[in-house]
Amino acid sequence: MQTNVNELDKRIRVGAVSYLNTKPLIFGVKRSGLMDRIDLIEDYPSKIASMLLNDEIDVGLVPVAVIPQMKQHFIITNYCIGADAEVASVALFSEVPMEEIKKVVLDYQSKTSVNLAKILLKEYWKKEVVFEYAKEDFLQHINGTTSAVVIGDRALRLTNSSKYIYDLGLAWKSFTDLPFVFAAWVANKPLDDGFIDAFNRANAYGVQHIDEVLAEIDFADYDLKKYYTKNISYKLNEKKMEGLRMFIEKLK
Question: How does DSSP classify residue 4?
């Protein structure tokens, strides 16, 4: 009797964003027994989102803007990459004030932040600009009336050198009075309840042991203790779900 290869391979393919903001969530996963059950892939947000859409992974910590493109989706944990005010690592960086900005270069690494910027520019700042999709060397184009949406670790590095910083987490909060969810653990198929429970507890472990997470990171450009405890808000509560639903509705 032949055994189906798929029956032998029960490993769950997990994709995660390779930014500093995901370190607490991944910290717990890497120290859990789950590593015997999963294949973990780390890359930038839009890449992980594409992999989830193409069924190259089963679950991913993905930009939430991908959700409307999915045939079915399942948010599987109580944790996310969210913000209840200033997020620090997702912002519009400029050499001139908002009223003088004419062009906005969009970071190629995240669909959520790009869409959030477009919504805020139109509805909150009521600003018409020319959008340009960025290539890898786009930071050097922040000049004169050209600004850029920058996300992740690169944004944290720019906080000390940019003249004008318009934080998108803070702007969304001011606009809607709701927190924002940048990324969530989303599956493209139903997963085993036992796995989801273990995965949820692994996420919780990292969030509850921030000092241990910090001990493994060398990053001098921003106070990561502040980042993990004040800027990023990891708990996916009902208020964040309300903010997420509003964002998804605006995407449509």
Answer: P
Bridge-partner residues for 41, per DSSP?
15
Q: Which domain holds residue 36?
A: 5-83+179-251
Is-contact 179 240, C-beta < 8 A? Answer: yes
Q: Are residues 130 and 191 in the same domain?
A: no
Other C-beta atoms closer than 10 Å to the C-beta of 130 total 11
Please give the helix or strand (H or E) that residue 61 lies within, else none. strand 59-63
| Per-residue model confidence as pLDDT tens digits over 105-124 | 998 777 899 999 999 999 99
Q: Do 147 and 158 share a domain, yes or no?
A: yes
Instruction: Give the three-class secondary structure for 132.
Output: strand
My answer on whether 145 and 184 are in the same domain is no
Answer for the pair 113, 218: CB distance below 8 angstroms, yes or no.
no
b/e burial code for range 17-48 (CB count within 10 A of at least 16 → b): bbbbbbbbbbbbbeebebeebbebbebbbbbb
Task: Convert the pLDDT of each residue in 153-163 to its tens digit.
Answer: 999 999 988 99
| Number of domains within the chain | 2
